[in-house]
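Milestone M4 deliverable, item 7.
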Amino acid sequence: MTIALRDLIKNPTAAELELVARYGMQPEDARRERAFQAFTETGLPHRRMEAWRWSDFKSALKALETPGTASSADPLPHEGALVFRFTPTGFEQPDALPDGIHVLAQPTAQALGGAEDVPLGALAAALSGGGSRPASLTFEITSRDLPRIHFVFEGAGEASFARIIFVIRSGAAINVTESYLGGAGLTSALLEFGLEAGAQLNRTIYQRGGSDESLAVTSVLKLEAGSEMTQTTLAFGAKVARLETRAVHQGTGARLSLNAAYLSGKGFHTDITTNVRHGAPACVTRQLTKGAVLDGGKGVFQGKFYVPRKSGQQTDADMQHQALLLEDGAEVFAKPELEIYADDVECAHGNTCGALDDAQLFYLRQRGIPERQARGMLTEAFIAEALDTADESVRDVLLAEAQAWLSS
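Output delivered:
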């Protein structure tokens, strides 16, 4: 079977052959096989695929190797949180959980609908598990006023895969934070969130990797009637890094906020990609993405709102992407899209890329502030708006991390 699957990838690279070998070491399972077949239809995503034209994993990931840089320290606080830790070889979880949080670590793979749309998410579903790591980790949230759940992805290794599933019951609420700290040559995580009627979720993502690492975080969201989700991301990129969110409004009056900030230095690539389907009436989506890129860095934003003719009536959606090219040689690629078939909607999108305002910079310099500090202050003020929606327990930490990057 492994040979047959390998042959489905045309001209496989060394990294793809290693991924096939890893799949061959997994227990046989029809659902795992289905996910891996979805991955092999394209192999590692590459620039000839329209949705991946600026994030070429096939070229970036030549082989699965342990990178030369260690994991970053986790800046997000652990105090008062339930910490779940993933490494390339292991998994740790709290000894006890409060009422209202139920966790099931499943050794067998679970089915993944729409796997062809998320090739690296399908790869995570196919290769997660093995050793002490579960094939999937399922959370059921049944109440409110619960401790924050914090995921840590770290540790040295060639590759790390994980699949996490959340079911948030009607009226329940939870705060979730995630730290992707690097250390693995390839990290691919698949997170699925299902919000029932009236459920609430605040999710915050922190990502930092090395310039010789590849990372993909694929998120699938489903929102029922009256549910509310807020997602905030701060990403510093890696050799190639993609944080992709695909959301579907499935019930009337669901609300979704998708905010992100990316900071890319020389040799770092950060891709923020989103796809939101307004599949129910009177749903609201707000999206703000801000980026700052230095010489030799690359930022990518791809956002799409899809509004069907019948189910998407009374949609209220706004998408904004704003980027600063801080130095000559910085690159930003942006593709905002609205695909609207309904006629009773309020939808808007905007996209701007430019440099710092010379007048503002002159104003600060005239007051004795050194140029480097002045540039950092203006960039920080520009980025901060996108982080305002983060969980209050980690918001100041995200701002401090952005400040540290700007000052360095």
